[in-house]
Amino acid sequence: ERADSSGADLISSSLGYNTFDDPSYNHTYAEMNGNTTMVARGADLAAKKGILVVNSAGNEGNLPWKYIASPADGDSVLAVGAVNAAGNVAGFSSYGPSSDGQVKPDVASQGQGTTIQGSGGNVTAGDGTSFSAPNMAGLATCLWQGFPNVNNMRIVNALRQAGSIASAPNDRIGYGIPDMRKAVMILLKEMATSSASISNCKTSLSWTSKDYLGMKYEIERKLVGESSYTKVGEVAATGTDFRNTTQSYTYGDTLINAQAGSISYRIRQVLDTASASFYGDYIDTVDISLAASCITTSIDPVPGTESLIRILPNPAHGQFTLQMKTQAPVSQLTIRIVNAKGQLVSSIRKSKPGGPASFDIPIHHLASGKYFVSVYDGQKLLATRELVKL
Question: Is this model's pTM higher than 0.70 or not?
């Protein structure tokens, strides 16, 4: 009540009640059901008021009691078990489940060999779920700061879903050790929207999401008769306020030799574009119906106001020639090459006058395989072509 009246958003607690000096107050494991003990009812009430309650699972794993202690049994409490730096469960970490069968603990964080500040101000190491719980509380706070418009239980559910064993939770670490990038992506997926329309054989794809500079979106398409998606373009993120602003984007895709029927697009938001730590996932998929086939017989099926991009030869060995034709000059021409995983492997800046132009692009440093070459005028994507490196 005091925390709520003071405007607290989150409580990190190492409380655990099971047995007492006066045995008449002792709880039984059967009472660890989230609804019996006074402290569990109080913790769940705090959660009902909107407070995110993070609680230690307990250090009874090697002791006769063995199980979690209340209020870790609360169904709206994020109970945290302990693992070591390698992700292995600590023997002292209390067992779940709650007596009514809830997955407990909910998640786990490092609580064995945890770096802490000692009482004398020195840096030392310690063991206990009293260290893993505040560790997770800090991560939960950072996640909530990024999504201030969601409530406490959506944060709890995102952490559970992002756990390392979310598909098969157990009674030691619950849903596992949360991957915080995955938790961010889970919340982004819940918020993202997309739509598409087709006119004159050109798809207009629109979507919204939260992002920040340095992120990007990859557009993939699956035409009638195709069994897999093909990347057709990229859009750079423009957001500068991840917390409070949702960005809106559009992408135009000209359909060439596309049969009538259902066309699917999916949008992958890439949070980390670095090759060593590349991370992204699909935030939305949209299906659209093409009423009549877009069949062309000309070598240049794109209207004159657009660009013609060709790669010769293709497949290529040490280099390829990029031929392009634009009516207007392009002063900020960027040629980006990404691999089949969507990782950026080369970025080249050029400029060109109006009309046709050719550029020799070295690729001898690239491994054999499939790549996608995208050409930009500043931030605007002109075209994307597939390249095979021999």
Answer: yes
What's the rounded mean pLDDT across residues 10-29?
A: 96
- Cα gap 370→54, rounded to integer Å: 47
- Residues contacting residue 251 through CB under 8 Å, at least 6 positions apart: 204, 205, 206, 219, 233, 235, 381
234 strand-pairing partners:
218
Q: Express each pLDDT in 257-283 by its tens digit.
A: 888 999 999 999 999 988 889 999 999
Tokens of 208: 């919204």
Cα distance between the two ends of the chain: 68
By residue count, the chain amounts to 390
Question: 201: which residues sit within 8 A by CB, 6+ positions away?
Answer: 254, 255, 256, 258, 294
Q: Count Cα neighbours of 349 within 13 Å in the Cβ-side half-sphere.
A: 4
Query: Could you give the CA distance from residue 76 to residue 172 in angstroms, rounded to a whole number?
Result: 18
CA of 281: how far to CAs of 162, 184, 285, 342, 376, in Å?
13, 11, 11, 11, 23
pLDDT tens-digit readout, 177-193: 999 999 999 999 999 99
Task: Name the pLDDT band for 296 (thresholds 50, 70, 90).
Answer: low
Q: Is 308 exposed, middle or buried (0-12, 13-18, 19+ CB in 10 A)?
A: middle
Question: Residue for token digits 């190491």?
Answer: 125
Task: Round to whole Å and give the CA distance between 156 and 77.
Answer: 8
